Backbone:
């Protein structure tokens, strides 16, 4: 007996105990609604998706070809359409996640209006977006299962065997997938981080990404002026997130520790070392210092440290920040990552300035000398000029191999004049295989793009506006949008149904029977798309 049929029988038994007062309740309909709402709370989602991530991580450890991917989504509808598309084209949601980008929350979801990625937006908007995304994904489940229930009704009406349809219902693959959620630098001290992490987990987040920047000086990872915190401060926030997971019963929740040290040359705080070689001493060893041999070399208010039996003065900028030594970024990244993994983090995020497999692999290999199963979440960022970066990588490789590159101008390789050249084609091949190559060679478990739908929205809107307000007029929409939706089988062409009108009609029929006032009659113009 299928689970669906078991639910029908169980509800029928329950109905019978209410001595006729539940006569308006149809057990079949109630079982359908139960199937269409598999996840009752955000914590149900967090526990379910955490188990998926842990399984995927183990499978990646066994085979690096089993990497995972996601796209950043700034609205529930965007996330819903993404997962509908993934399931339609890939046949499964396996290994596909959603990414919640702090950048896009700041740019698109703040009540202040568009903001830079500097943790100035309302922190509650992060948890609200997680809840919104899962609301839309659960609605996708309900809509797709609703289609199966219609098939079930048709089969029953024709006296056909319904076993195969009931199996499809029982084995329905949900659109609910893990979300990797960006908590920035924690939006305050460790208690603030804990409180926000709880809200995010309660909304459904199984995976929280936190970075080692100073919270009130937070900058986008691809901008200048980044300031890191000492390891002790960062580890306290990792602990805070773990406590939040444990308190809420998501025991296998995933923490991604992000380091911005590769591009961050400043620190706000000099930690106190209590014994030689401790974390504070290692952090301070990277400080740019000047040896002090006489008190006369000190200015009013200068600070001094004892390092290697010498008295040194850290270089301090007019804003009070301290500078790290030049060319120490890689070493600081490696130390950050090892330390985070040794103190409770599960995955790493190394923010780089370019997408270069060799550069990433160099750091990951150094980390794996200490933590062999270290693996990354990596930002395939739109902040990189992918075309220029990879054309320059090919140029450099060819030059090192002794090939003639005299007919290429390295600084101008972005030019359209090179688009059909051998070098450009080789670069595009490398871009196409970047995720596979980096998963295999550089320990990248999860590939994401932080804000792709920000750019696709801008591009599609520009194309539509150009035609609609120009000579094409209405043809710009019909040819460029609606006809493509029909030809490519997008459910969204029936936007009324996508917004829930069919679900609503079904529920009205459950609740009111033949008296239900439904929207899906003959005069509904959405019927024009049933062709």
Residues:
């Amino acid at each position: 007996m299928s689970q669906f049929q078991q639910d029908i029988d169980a509800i029928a038994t329950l109905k019978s105990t209410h001595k006729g007062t539940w006569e308006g309740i149809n057990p079949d309909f109630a079982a359908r609604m139960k199937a269409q709402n598999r996840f009752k709370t955000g914590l149900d989602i967090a526990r379910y998706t955490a188990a998926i991530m842990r399984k995927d991580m183990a499978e990646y450890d066994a085979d690096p070809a089993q990497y995972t991917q996601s796209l950043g989504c700034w609205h529930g509808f965007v996330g819903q359409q993404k997962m509908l598309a993934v399931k339609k084209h890939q046949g499964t949601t396996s290994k596909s996640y959603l990414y919640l980008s702090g950048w896009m929350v700041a740019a698109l979801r703040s009540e202040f209006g568009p903001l830079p990625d500097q943790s100035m937006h309302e922190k509650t908007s992060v948890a609200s977006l997680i809840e919104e995304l899962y609301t839309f994904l659960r609605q996708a489940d309900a809509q797709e299962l609703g289609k199966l229930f219609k098939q079930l009704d048709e089969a029953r009406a024709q006296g056909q065997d319904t076993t195969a349809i009931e199996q499809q219902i029982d084995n329905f693959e949900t659109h609910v997938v893990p979300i990797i959620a960006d908590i920035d630098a924690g939006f305050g001290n460790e208690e603030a981080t804990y409180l926000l992490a709880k809200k995010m987990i309660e909304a459904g987040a199984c995976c929280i990404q936190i970075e080692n920047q100073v919270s009130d000086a937070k900058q986008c990872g691809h901008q200048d002026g980044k300031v890191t915190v000492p390891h002790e401060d960062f580890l306290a926030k990792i602990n805070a997130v773990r406590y939040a997971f444990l308190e809420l019963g998501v025991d296998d929740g995933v923490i991604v520790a992000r380091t911005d040290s590769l591009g961050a040359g400043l620190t706000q705080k000099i930690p106190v070392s209590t014994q030689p070689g401790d974390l504070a001493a290692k952090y301070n060893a990277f400080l740019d210092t000047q040896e002090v041999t006489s008190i006369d070399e000190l200015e009013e208010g200068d600070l001094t440290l004892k390092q290697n039996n010498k008295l040194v003065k850290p270089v301090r900028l007019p804003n009070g920040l301290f500078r790290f030594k030049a060319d120490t970024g890689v070493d600081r990244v490696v130390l950050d990552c090892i330390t985070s993994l040794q103190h409770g983090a599960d995955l790493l995020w190394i923010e780089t300035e370019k997408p270069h497999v060799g550069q990433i692999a160099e750091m990951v290999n150094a980390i794996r000398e200490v933590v062999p199963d270290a693996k990354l979440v990596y930002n395939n960022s739109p902040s990189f000029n992918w075309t220029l970066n990879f054309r320059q990588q090919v140029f450099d490789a060819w030059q090192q191999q002794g090939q003639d590159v005299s007919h290429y101008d390295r600084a101008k390789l972005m030019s359209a004049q090179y688009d059909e050249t051998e070098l450009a084609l080789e670069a595009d091949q490398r871009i196409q295989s970047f995720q596979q190559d980096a998963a295999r060679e550089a320990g990248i478990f999860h590939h994401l793009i932080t804000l792709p739908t920000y750019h696709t929205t801008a591009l599609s809107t520009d194309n539509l506006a150009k035609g609609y307000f120009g000579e094409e007029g209405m043809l710009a929409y019909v040819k460029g949008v609606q006809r493509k939706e029909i030809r490519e089988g997008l459910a969204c062409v029936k936007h009324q149904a996508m917004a829930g009108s069919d679900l609503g009609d079904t529920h009205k029929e459950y609740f009111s029977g033949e008296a239900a006032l439904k929207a899906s009659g003959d005069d509904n113009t959405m019927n024009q798309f049933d062709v």
Remarks:
- The first helix runs from residue 3 to 16.
- The chain is about 50% helix and 10% strand.
- Residues 1-36 form one domain.
- The longest strand covers residues 254-259.
